[in-house]
Amino acid sequence: QVQLVESGGGLVQAGGSxxxxxxxxxxxxxxYAMGWFRQAPGKERAFxxxxxxxxxxxxxxxxxxxxFTISRNNANNTVSLQMNSLKPQDTAVYYCxxxxxxxxxxxxxxxxxxxxxxVTVSS
Length: 123
What we know:
0% of the residues lie in helices and 51% in strands. The chain is an all-beta fold. The strands form two sheets. Strands 2, 4, 5, 6, 9, 10 and 11 form a seven-stranded mixed beta sheet that branches. Strands 1-3-8-7 form a four-stranded antiparallel beta sheet, with no helix packed on it. β7 and β8 (78-83) form a beta hairpin. It is globular.
């Protein structure tokens, strides 16, 4: 089992920045690739970004490319999502997730999930 706890969400104005963090516990963190997903009101959960086990490879949804950066620290079992130039359409509950697979973008490919953290971007 891997337990994931997100933090760092909040309310920010359009154009602002937020940094989300996800703390992992349980099994060996470096055995898992990590991902961020988000779910906006009335919409399905959608892929945002993923990072490989070592952190040397990343992949982003087109909607966030160039604005968001995913990173990880295997020494302290955390994965982060730096979000810049935020837009109202980025408003959602953000989830981190863990998978044994490489750079996956589909929800069903992730084995463990956090509870989510709310991000609200005002216009």
